[in-house]
Design a protein that fits this description.
Largest sheet: none
Subcellular location: Cytoplasm
Number of strands: 0
Oligomer: single chain
CATH topology: Substrate Binding Domain Of Dnak, Chain:A, Domain 2
Number of helices: 5
Helix content: over 70%
InterPro entries: AH/BAR_dom_sf (IPR027267), BAR_dom (IPR004148), Endophilin_SH3RF (IPR050384)
CATH superfamily: Arfaptin homology (AH) domain/BAR domain
CATH class: Mainly Alpha
Radius of gyration: 30 Å
Pfam families: BAR
Order of helices and strands: HHHHH
Protein name: SHLB2 protein
Structural class: mainly alpha
CATH architecture: Up-down Bundle
Family: Belongs to the endophilin family.
Shape: rod-shaped
């Protein structure tokens, strides 16, 4: 009732401290940007949406995500197979072996980067959203309910005093 009356402009609302309002606004801003950064980083690390869904499901089921071959490693594998097919002694075969080995190292570095970014960057962001933000939201709801209770009590006291004053006049 108090909430509805406040929204309709029929009841007074106790305002929170300006510093506290600023903190709430900063918390909302932090949450929104953290979600955007988390999503975009996931897209950068795994551009394939179906692979991201698969990884998400493995993570939610507390299972280990199967190791996936990177595009660089796959290209290296094709180059090495082609070099063996053409013959490692031919100029084209030698070149394919050298470039394939470089691609394999690049693919391994990419895999390590993805693993490291996931552990050292994405995990803290997820921990904030799943832990700290939930706590902030819960405490905010509790504060809002307490404020509504306070305002409802203030309104009852005000009505009671008005009724007493009216009774004293008559």
């Amino acid at each position: 009732l108090q909430f509805t009356e406040e929204k309709l402009g029929q009841a007074e609302k106790t305002e929170l401290d300006a510093h506290f309002e600023n903190l709430l606004a900063r918390a909302d801003c932090t949450k929104n940007w953290t979600e955007k950064i988390l999503r975009q980083t996931e897209v950068l690390l795994q551009p394939n949406p179906s692979a991201r869904v698969e990884e998400f499901l493995y993570e939610k089921l507390d299972r280990k995500v199967p190791s996936r071959v990177t595009n660089g490693e796959l290209l290296a594998q094709y180059m090495t197979e082609a070099a063996n097919d053409f013959g490692p002694g031919t100029p084209y075969g030698k070149t394919l072996i050298k470039v394939g080995e470089t691609q394999r190292r690049l693919g391994a570095a990419e895999r390590e980067f993805i693993r490291s970014a996931s552990i050292n960057f994405l995990t803290p962001l997820r921990n904030f959203l799943e832990g700290d933000w939930r706590t902030i939201s819960k405490e905010r709801r509790i504060l809002q309910n307490r404020r509504l209770d306070l305002d409802a009590c203030k309104a009852r006291v005000k009505k009671a005093k008005a009724a007493e004053a009216k009774a004293a006049v008559t």
